[in-house]
Amino acid sequence: MASTLTFTWSGKGRDGKTAKGETIASNKDEAISLLRKQGIVVTSINSKSGMSMEIKLPTFGSGVTDKDIIVFTRQFTTMIDAGLPLVQCLEILEKQTPNKILATTIGQIRKDVEAGSTYADALGKHPKIFNDLYVNLVAAGEVGGILDTILGRLTVYIEKNMKIKKQIKSAMVYPSIVMTVAVGVIAVLMIFVIPMFAKMFTDMGGHLPGPTQMVINISKFMTNWKKMVPILILLGTSIVGIKKYYATKKGRLAMDRMFLNAPIIGPLIRKVAVSKFTRTLGTLMAAGVPIMDGLEIVAKTAGNKVVENTVMDTRASISEGKTLSEPLLRSKVFPPMVTQMISVGETTGALDAMLSKIADFYDDEVDAAVEAMTAALEPALMVFLGISVGYIIIAMYLPIFHLADVVG
User: Fold this and answer.
1) Distance of CA 165 to CAs 160, 227, 307, 335, 366, Å?
2) What is the per-residue pLDDT for 16?
């Protein structure tokens, strides 16, 4: 009979909260594997004999981009499809991956696989690089013997997500530049140019027109650092306060709901959420992941607390025997067309295919929404810049026009 050991461990559960406990296994790897199946990411584990086996979770993650993951997954898929052993694939990729952080991670994964761990469990030790969706799809591929197919779907999924992110970032570049230029021009005028005009008008004497006096008063306020410092401190404190409020469960829910219902950007966020929900759930179901597990993963990767709560409520309703479409329709987060198509997919038994069709449709909708948002923001910002700078210039020239009339 194999000897067993008792391990004390600490880690993070599915909800992100720290958890501690004990588990019985024959060795460390088996203990970690058992905990992983329970949805726990182990951060440290010790045997009762006292031997420390601290697991250093990688502190990186931001150093590995979606593009790096796509290239890694695509190359890995090609080699697996060609019949190369798993360990050999990882060894090759470890040597040729240009991103040093990812290369180091691949090396750690290779060592875990060589030690007897499954590929999914080895990936699960690096949650900052390979999220729950990636790990669970790989696990489904390993169990079903279709790892190459699953990795191909993963590549497509990540590529589509990256495309949406790029579109939104690209759409915000021009408005951001215009806004930065506008603020910079106005600040230069107020801090450096207007004071020279103000001195000239003071030397001339007389009563200044209302618009001119207002601009000069604003300029004096902006150049008075004793008055500006408290304003800047208040502004900085407000930003920090908003960030801390958003970090709370209640604050994130309130602000995410506000973003979802906001004009211009709200419809875009809603369409991105629908696209991500249908694409993720469709990919998971096509891979054979049970719908209850799939919905839990979708909720974690939603990116919006309102959508996350809606998905978890839907999961609870399904556990009570209801269909997927019913709770989604009641939530009013998802458009009626989406819930009706999901209902048809459930009825026909082709829900995964229907979800993929909805995702494709909403990818096009996101394209259109990004273009519409850009088309609305660009002229609005240009008008703002023109009116602001124009008002300042006219206000400064009004006294000069008045002086010319007196001379005339």
Assistant:
1) 9, 41, 18, 22, 10
2) 63
